[in-house]
Design a protein that fits this description.
The protein is an alpha/beta fold. Helices cover 41% and strands 10% of the residues. The protein has 17 helices and nine strands. The radius of gyration is 23 Å and the shape is globular. The chain starts with a helix and ends in a 6-residue tail after the last helix.
Length: 353
């Protein structure tokens, strides 16, 4: 009778609303690892924090055992929790691939994908006779970690260039075309040379200069230009390792929770900055955004000009430096980019030196 009264206009039934966002709580996600477990490597931790704050791509170069993989695996623990929209986007992709757990219909943690270096083009970017998402789409809104980067086939690495630029990948087949999202943070790690000990102070490296050049040439300049932060991760010194239980509290570094708090504050500034823009992070800024949000003083302009002339930065690398400097300023809650912000950003271009 209530339905009849409603349709005849004698009564009103209030619309029942479901708070979908409230049903998906990503704040309690646990990763089972923490940044405090990484001994030493303060320089690399700082670079990781900047990368997380601005969603910048990062590459680490260093000898075996220096902690590159350990740092990369903990990057997701300092990224902000997935928003409702991000969680839905990730869930849709994982649902298509049949990767969701039966017990829970949503994917709440930041994706972390680490494919082996033998992966094919189709496996990385997607494809096949019946197109399906690849690793870059499975890493959407999360981290794609490529360990031993020069070991990947060059043609496989080159297909990353366009998705890194556009944040999506299109796959065309006879009679159909599929477009998958691929806004991921690329984290790469590599040895400085084939044997891995070029930068080791003990002089264990046995590689010749031509061997080193051939090894590094496997990664093209255009791909490196799209990686905003390039750092060296040296061998950990013994004094940074803590085996004495009495000294553990003294030497233990910051936790992921502490670092994530600063990252989230920097992200809030970016949300306000790009409120009416098509981009969401500093790393996605184009030249027109740099003009609007990254004005440089005359002193900063001079520092950048000297760096370009001495280090031979390309135009894209120059823009990368400015984007990273903007993120460093955000972490300090500064409206303007200062000289020390720019100087630190230039320092994170180790492969250009």
């Amino acid at each position: 009778s209530q339905i009849v009264d409603f349709f005849t206009g004698f009564t009103n039934i209030e619309t029942h609303k479901i708070d979908s966002a409230g049903q998906i709580d990503t704040s309690g996600v646990e990763y089972g690892m923490d940044f405090s477990e990484v001994m030493g490597q303060q320089h690399a931790k700082r670079a990781m924090e900047i990368a997380a704050a601005g969603f910048h791509n990062i590459i680490m170069t260093g000898p075996p055992g220096s902690g590159k993989s350990m740092l990369a695996k903990r990057l997701a623990t300092i990224l902000p929790e997935l928003t409702f929209k991000e969680a839905i986007d990730v869930t849709r992709i994982y649902s298509v691939m049949g990767l969701l757990e039966d017990k829970f219909p949503y994917n709440l943690s930041r994706p972390f994908r680490s494919p082996h270096h033998t992966i094919s083009n189709a496996g990385l970017v997607g494809g096949g006779a019946k197109p399906k998402p690849g690793e870059i789409s499975l890493a959407h809104n999360g981290v794609l970690f490529l360990d031993e980067l020069p070991e990947f086939k060059r043609n496989v690495l080159e297909v990353l260039r366009q998705p890194l630029e556009d944040g999506k990948v299109s796959i065309a087949r006879a009679g159909m075309k599929a477009t998958y999202p691929s806004q991921f943070m690329l984290v790469a790690a590599m040895n400085p040379c084939p044997c891995g000990y070029l930068s080791d102070p003990t002089g264990k490296c046995t590689c010749t200069q031509p061997q080193v050049q051939r090894y590094r040439s496997k990664i093209s300049g255009p791909l490196l230009d799209r990686i905003d932060i390039q750092i060296e991760v040296p061998k950990v010194k013994y004094k940074d390792l803590s085996y004495n239980l009495k000294d553990t509290c003294k030497t233990k570094g910051e936790t992921s929770f502490e670092i994530r708090k600063r990252v989230k504050e920097a992200r809030k500034l970016q949300e306000i900055r790009f409120e009416r823009s098509s981009v969401s992070y500093n790393a996605r800024m184009h030249s027109r955004h740099l003009q609007s949000f990254c004005s440089l003083s005359a002193q900063c302009e001079k520092i950048l000009e000297q760096a370009v002339n001495v280090l031979g930065f390309s135009a894209r690398a120059c823009h990368s430096v400015i984007r990273v400097a903007r993120t460093i300023a955000d972490l300090e809650n500064r409206l303007k980019i200062k000289r020390h912000h720019l100087a630190e950003a230039i320092h994170y271009r180790s492969l250009d030196r």
